[in-house]
Design a protein that fits this description.
204 residues, alpha+beta, Jelly Rolls, four-stranded antiparallel sheet, 3 helices, 11 strands, globular, binds N-oxalylglycine, binds manganese (II) ion
Length: 204
């Protein structure tokens, strides 16, 4: 893997031009497999909780996944490797685009068969902190017929379907792109992340 400081220059260019892009192999396969194994084990041990939307207290019919937030200072080795890699990307965005991204927040997500997430935008109504959305996929041997695409809605009414293949990272500007998760026929595992800026103080 190319690790020089311009490794991500094509990613930076794509994000500037199109507002979104796909990185096919973010991590060495062994690291992706370690994340997948951990996510699956936590799911089987019932350590993931039904996801909520925004500040809602309860699970919602809008999304059918269960999640586990990574906790700063208490990350497993695979979680730390992933977080370090995303930080390299975040720092490249700050250097090249002056985005002022101060941190990432990440969670595992498992969508059981038939579950999805209806069309939405990742900017929360009460906060502009999320600038870049990043979704990293953990699913070996995924076939298009398994479903589970992330449908990204583009300007002008078209869309792109991105399938959740192991090792693939999807990036897009959080404020700009509506998207949805289509149901799959098998468990669908991902890490959803948001690169955050310092939130502006609310105006009353
Ligand atoms: C989300 C989301 C997409 C995915 O968690 O907000 O859109 O492909 N996830 O898991
Ligand atoms: Mn989303």
């Amino acid at each position: 893997m190319n690790t020089d400081s311009h490794e991500f220059s094509s990613v930076v260019n794509a994000l500037t031009t199109d507002g979104w892009c796909v990185v096919p192999d973010l991590l060495p396969a062994a690291q992706t497999q370690a994340l997948a194994a951990e996510c699956r084990a936590m799911h089987e041990a019932r350590q993931l909780a039904p996801a909520r939307v925004g500040s809602a207290r309860t699970a919602t019919p809008l999304r059918g996944d269960s999640t586990h937030w990574f906790q700063a200072g208490a990350m497993s080795t695979p979680q730390q490797a992933f977080t370090d890699r995303l930080d390299t990307l975040r720092i490249a965005f700050n250097r090249e685009l002056m985005l002022g991204l101060i941190e990432c927040e990440s969670h595992y997500a498992v969508y059981p068969p038939g579950a999805g997430y209806t069309r939405h935008i990742d900017r929360l109504r009460d906060s502009d902190a999320r600038v870049v959305s990043a979704v990293f996929y953990l699913n070996e041997d995924w076939q298009d017929t398994d479903g589970g695409a992330l449908r990204l809605y583009l300007d002008g009414g078209s869309h792109r379907d991105i399938y959740p293949h192991a090792g693939k990272l999807l990036l897009f500007l959080s404020a700009q792109f509506e998207h949805e998760v289509l149901p799959a026929t098998r468990d669908r595992m991902s890490i959803a992340c948001w690169m955050r800026q310092r939130a502006l103080a609310p105006t009353f």
